[in-house]
TrEMBL record:
<protein>
    <recommendedName>
        <fullName>chorismate mutase</fullName>
        <ecNumber>5.4.99.5</ecNumber>
    </recommendedName>
</protein>
<dbReference type="InterPro" id="IPR002701">
    <property type="entry name" value="CM_II_prokaryot"/>
</dbReference>
<dbReference type="GO" id="GO:0046417">
    <property type="term" value="P:chorismate metabolic process"/>
</dbReference>
<dbReference type="GO" id="GO:0004106">
    <property type="term" value="F:chorismate mutase activity"/>
</dbReference>
<dbReference type="InterPro" id="IPR036979">
    <property type="entry name" value="CM_dom_sf"/>
</dbReference>
<dbReference type="Pfam" id="PF01817">
    <property type="entry name" value="CM_2"/>
</dbReference>
<keyword id="KW-0413">Isomerase</keyword>
<feature type="domain" description="Chorismate mutase">
    <location>
        <begin position="4"/>
        <end position="95"/>
    </location>
</feature>
<dbReference type="InterPro" id="IPR010951">
    <property type="entry name" value="CM_bact"/>
</dbReference>
<dbReference type="GO" id="GO:0009697">
    <property type="term" value="P:salicylic acid biosynthetic process"/>
</dbReference>
<dbReference type="InterPro" id="IPR036263">
    <property type="entry name" value="Chorismate_II_sf"/>
</dbReference>
<dbReference type="InterPro" id="IPR051331">
    <property type="entry name" value="Chorismate_mutase-related"/>
</dbReference>
Length: 101
């Protein structure tokens, strides 16, 4: 089925989804730019790559935001955990470089 035969509303919704996906990628890139700086500061100050207390607070905060936004809080938590795991991996790599490993 060609896109010209699809309902206009479907095409408009898909265009909105494409724009949202692009915004998500840009926001994730900005988030990782910031967490890269955090990782460097942690490494330079001898701090651990992970901060379980902060992560717990973030999970609680984002679950609440998800709930009030009509998003499944379990999904939001899984998504955050995925991101945090990658951030910690980056922080560990940064710490190893800073410590000459």
């Amino acid at each position: 089925m060609s896109s010209s035969s699809l309902p206009k509303e479907l095409l408009e919704l898909r265009a909105s989804i494409d724009n949202i996906d692009a915004a998500l990628i840009h926001m994730l890139a900005e988030r990782f730019r910031c967490t890269k700086e955090v990782g460097l500061l942690k490494a330079q100050n001898g701090l651990a790559p992970a901060d379980p207390a902060r992560e717990k607070l973030q999970v609680e905060r984002l679950r609440s935001l998800a709930q009030s936004s009509g998003l499944d809080p379990d999904f939001a938590e899984k998504f955050l955990n995925f991101i945090v795991k990658e951030v910690i991996r980056h922080h560990e790599t940064t710490a190893a470089k800073e410590n000459g490993a």
